[in-house]
């Protein structure tokens, strides 16, 4: 898929290059589900349609053929089933007039929404050059986790993580250090699953037998022992850049194991879902929906999303709304184009749903980072995102900047809250995280809460909420 995808990416008017150079992307205003956003990058010839039933889909395909247009390749298994209809993928055959066929589909009354297979990318700061890991012939085997030390040993590189101090994480650790019971999906470029500072905190699928070639738990994925690679379509979601390993380490690198750093949470179960890959760290709407749906169906309580792009996607909205209905929190980076999301929304951060937290980035001085998107109406909180030190592949450590690095700090705080108060659902978690911020003057006009998150205050507030002082 890697080679085919890069060949088939459609860059209308060359617009896609501009946001990539800026290290962010351009958001677009909400559009009616039957108006296609033709500006956003998408996979050429691939579309998703929402309709009520498979019978409808068959009729739609037949009607296109009946008008003398070529046969559409349609996938009969819906990629998503929602209360408002089923999403199906249709593909226009190569060398055919996609525009003409899409016009016909848009005129079809049994289609309630249609959109292209948008392209999303990691939210990388323009000031960091990508550092792709050296090419490998294949992703490595899973290593066996070594046993943890009997007594806690300080993490030697902890002092380099100013972000933890900023958000009062060390003070919060007297109340909560996280827990393996909290399952958090890291939806990104994958994770170095053999990293000595992450291996203890990886989620493993309790119902799957590894390496037997069977789908033991019948969830549709063979040998999905630690998550899934929706980019490479296999069971080894290894990080082919540095982005996903870095976000995972900020959420929950193992704390007090005598190795490297610590995440905001010392302990969690990181579900490794990869849909972004290659030199640009890009992936499709199909992969994003697959990842989010996998997370919901397989027990994630929190999702961390340091990626964006595309236009307004009704299908992406629908699957995040499904997460909301299941009480799953969806934390998203606000974007790195230094623009207002109130004016130009950034997706998925700008979806107005009760479980979405949109996160801006601050620097060592608590100023809004120069690349960070903002929005008094649409960006909820800020968190450290400039020069963040964390885990990178091949067992290493390094610094990156971006709202991509800010969002995982919020995810880590959500893990701390959820491990102490498992009954709190996404709406209450969001409310507590938003109300417990430290007010910062310079953020008051730029961010909805006017503040940067504070882990200790969030835990105190949750205790008060539960009457457990
Ligand atoms: Ca399985
Ligand atoms: Ca298996
Ligand atoms: Ca450590």
Structure summary:
With 469 residues, the protein is of the alpha/beta class. It has helices at residues 2-8, 17-22, 54-66, 98-107, 162-166, 169-172, 243-252, 285-297, 314-325, 403-420, 426-435, 455-466, and strands at residues 9-10, 42-51, 73-74, 80-82, 85-91, 113-122, 178-188, 227-229, 267-274, 282-284, 302-305, 307-309, 329-333, 356-362, 381-384, 388-392, 396-400, 438-439, 451-452. Strand 4 (80-82) and strand 5 form a beta hairpin.
Q: Any descriptors?
A:
20% strand; 19 strands; 469 residues; binds calcium ion; 7-stranded parallel β-sheet; Alpha-Beta Plaits; 8-stranded antiparallel β-sheet; alpha/beta; disordered N terminus; 2 domains; Rossmann fold
List the helices and strands and how they pair.
Blueprint: H1 2-8, E1 9-10, H2 17-22, E2 42-51, H3 54-66, E3 73-74, E4 80-82, E5 85-91, H4 98-107, E6 113-122, H5 162-166, H6 169-172, E7 178-188, E8 227-229, H7 243-252, E9 267-274, E10 282-284, H8 285-297, E11 302-305, E12 307-309, H9 314-325, E13 329-333, E14 356-362, E15 381-384, E16 388-392, E17 396-400, H10 403-420, H11 426-435, E18 438-439, E19 451-452, H12 455-466
Parallel strand pairs: 7-9, 7-11, 8-9, 11-13, 13-14, 14-15
Antiparallel strand pairs: 1-2, 2-5, 2-6, 3-5, 4-5, 6-10, 6-12, 16-17, 18-19
The structure holds calcium ion (3 copies).
């Amino acid at each position: 898929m890697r080679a085919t995808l890069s060949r088939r990416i459609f860059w209308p008017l060359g617009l896609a290059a501009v946001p990539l150079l800026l290290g962010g992307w351009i958001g677009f205003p909400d559009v009616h589900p039957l108006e296609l956003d033709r500006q956003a990058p998408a996979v050429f010839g691939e579309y998703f349609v929402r309709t009520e039933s498979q019978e409808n889909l068959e009729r739609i395909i037949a009607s296109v053929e009946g008008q003398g247009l070529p046969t559409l390749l349609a996938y009969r298994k819906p990629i998503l089933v929602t209360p408002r209809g089923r999403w199906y993928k249709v593909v226009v055959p190569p060398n055919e007039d996609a525009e003409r066929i899409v016009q016909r589909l848009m005129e079809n009354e049994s289609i309630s929404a249609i959109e292209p297979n948008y392209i999303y990318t990691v939210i990388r700061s323009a000031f960091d050059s990508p550092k792709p890991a050296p090419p490998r012939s294949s992703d490595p085997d899973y290593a066996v986790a070594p046993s943890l030390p009997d007594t806690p040993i300080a993490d030697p590189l902890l002092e380099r993580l100013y972000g933890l101090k900023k958000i009062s994480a060390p003070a919060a650790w007297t109340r909560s250090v996280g827990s393996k019971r909290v399952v958090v999906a890291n939806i990104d470029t994958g994770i170095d699953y053999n990293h000595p500072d992450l291996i203890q905190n990886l989620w493993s699928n309790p119902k799957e037998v590894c390496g037997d070639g069977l789908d033991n738990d019948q969830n549709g994925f063979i040998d999905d022992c630690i998550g899934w690679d929706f980019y490479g379509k296999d069971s080894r979601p290894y990080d082919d850049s540095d982005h996903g390993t870095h976000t995972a380490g900020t959420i929950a690198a193992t704390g007090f194991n005598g190795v490297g750093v610590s995440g905001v949470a010392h302990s969690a179960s990181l579900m490794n879902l990869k849909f972004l890959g290659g030199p640009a760290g890009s992936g499709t709407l199909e992969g994003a929906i697959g990842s989010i749906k996998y997370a919901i169906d397989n027990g994630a309580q929190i999702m961390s999303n340091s990626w964006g792009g595309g236009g307004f996607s009704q299908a992406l909205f629908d699957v995040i709304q499904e997460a909301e209905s299941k009480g799953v929190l969806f934390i998203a980076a606000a974007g790195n184009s230094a623009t207002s999301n109130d004016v130009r929304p950034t997706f998925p951060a700008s979806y107005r749903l009760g479980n979405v937290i949109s996160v801006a980035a601050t620097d060592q001085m608590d100023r809004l980072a120069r690349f960070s998107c903002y929005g008094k109406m649409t960006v909820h909180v800020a968190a450290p995102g400039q020069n963040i030190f964390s885990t990178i592949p091949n067992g290493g450590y390094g610094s990156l900047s971006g709202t991509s690095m800010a969002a995982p700090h919020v995810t880590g705080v959500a893990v701390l809250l959820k491990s102490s108060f498992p009954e709190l659902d996404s709406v209450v978690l969001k409310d507590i995280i938003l109300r417990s911020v430290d007010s910062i003057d310079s953020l008051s006009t730029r961010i909805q809460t006017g503040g940067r998150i504070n882990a200790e205050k969030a835990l105190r507030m949750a205790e008060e909420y539960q009457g457990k002082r």
